[in-house]
Amino acid sequence: MKRGSGILLHISSLPSPYGIGTLGKAAYDFVDRLHAAKQSYWQVLPCTPTGYADSPYSGTSAFAYNPYFIDFDLLEEDGLLRKSDYEALNFGKDESSVDYEALFQLKHGVLEKAYERGIEKYAHEFSAFKYENAGWLFDYALFVVLKKHFHYLPYGQWAPDIVEREPAAIMELTQRYNREIEAIQFTQFLYERQWFALKEYANKNGIQMIGDIPIYVALDSAETWAHPEYFLKDGSVAGTPPDYFCDEGQLWGNPLYDWDYMREHHYEWWVRRMKRSLHLYDILRIDHFRGFEAYFKIPKGGVPKDGEWVKGPGGALFDAIKTALPMPPIIAEDLGAIDDAVRGFLDYCGFPGLKVLQFAFDERNSDYLPHNYPRNSVVYTGTHDNDTTLHWFKTSPPETKRFLAGYIGKATEKNVVRKLIRLAMMSVADISIIPMQDILELDGEARMNYPSKALGNWKWRMKKGAFDKEKIDWLRSVTEIYGRAE
């Protein structure tokens, strides 16, 4: 990958008057500011629909888009909405935080109006979209409609004939809810139109889009309902042992793949998923990449201390992916418990891994110290799971601060964030990605996610005008100095 730098900012965190960041004007404005700062990359978090707890890493579909990101003003320009359809709605008063409850209550009703006005206007394009996405679109739309029909209960608590997808029952509900199913499909079509328009604009301005996909789907998802054969039947779930993020380990609760079944079917589902993802993004980050070499399996009803590491598909999966997609531009998120087997797997795949500066100063010869980096890597000050760099520094133990000062010179609350951004930029890592919160030098209230905290995450939003000329000029300067500018 070419030497360059970029910013990590999820779509949800863009400024917007409608409760959450969208693919509208603020996204185009952000591209302009990235271009002015001579950045090469915009990294987002997973853009799949979210369920309980609003985590983009536990999506209700591996293929669908998050309809919350559809921009109303763009739909109004297309003649699918009127200002009166949405301007008076209360999507929350706090411009720095997402109100997911308000979005859940209000956004789908507005999008239904866009469906009613647009279904005939875009009939030809919509028909092509349905054909191209036939492998997942209907199942997802039916799942969403049935969730509402069954009062948003987990699908395991639906009527038994629906849980088992008995053909007569599915056909009856499909006929009964045909219009609602089509409306959900049309919403996905609208997202894709807005996404590719934004991506084209970014690419024309020299910005590549880095997407992100979680290794797992949610336990209550379209995939687990429509294709239970993809998953283990013993009720075991994913998680992690005790680590940097959580002393007790983490119980994610995601269902685990039946890798024997996947192998017997030539990893067809994963190949399809990767093809679609690399159609949407220029570069793809895969979360929890080490889980392909070995995954942490927690038995049904157990806790992380009851779990064990189990061998995954390893290189065979990526051999199949590379056969279908030669030289795929993939970034491997290789944080967490890494041993020699994982390192060998990463070397075999050849994808760049992650380096996080907040992990670098706890020990003297850490792999996260810049003098130990290979070029084939991506360096961050922190990720969406980390604290902001300013608050990390404030709460670091004295020995960490002493080592940090020995490495970068005197560090204070006023200068440490920019010093660490500069350190990332000067490293040999091919790509440097800085979270927007660190560009803005924000404190801990701007943290995106607490891995050990189930609720209240994924809410932070950037205020309008925060990424101002002074910050753009400084970022452009360090980008040019360290050879990361176009």
Task: Explain what the structure shows.
With 486 residues, this protein is α/β, with parallel strands linked by helices. The protein has 18 helices and twelve strands. The strands form two sheets. Strands 9-6-3-2-1-12-11-10 form an eight-stranded parallel β-sheet. Strands 5-4-7-8 form a four-stranded antiparallel β-sheet, with no helix packed on it. α11 crosses α12 (315-324). It has helices at residues 25-36, 72-77, 100-118, 123-132, 137-149, 160-163, 167-176, 178-204, 222-226, 259-264, 268-280, 315-324, 340-349, 389-395, 398-408, 416-426, 436-439, 469-481, and strands at residues 4-8, 41-43, 208-213, 237-240, 250-255, 283-286, 294-298, 308-311, 330-332, 353-356, 377-380, 431-435. The model has no long low-confidence stretch (mean pLDDT 96). It has one domain (4-481): Glycosidases (TIM Barrel), CATH 3.20.20. Pfam families: Glyco_hydro_77 (PF02446). Keywords: Carbohydrate metabolism, Glycosyltransferase, Transferase. This is 4-alpha-glucanotransferase. It catalyses: Transfers a segment of a (1->4)-alpha-D-glucan to a new position in an acceptor, which may be glucose or a (1->4)-alpha-D-glucan. One of its GO terms (molecular function) is 4-alpha-glucanotransferase activity.
Please outline the helices and strands.
Layout: E1 4-8, H1 25-36, E2 41-43, H2 72-77, H3 100-118, H4 123-132, H5 137-149, H6 160-163, H7 167-176, H8 178-204, E3 208-213, H9 222-226, E4 237-240, E5 250-255, H10 259-264, H11 268-280, E6 283-286, E7 294-298, E8 308-311, H12 315-324, E9 330-332, H13 340-349, E10 353-356, E11 377-380, H14 389-395, H15 398-408, H16 416-426, E12 431-435, H17 436-439, H18 469-481
Parallel strand pairs: 1-2, 1-12, 2-3, 3-6, 6-9, 10-11, 11-12
Antiparallel strand pairs: 4-5, 4-7, 7-8
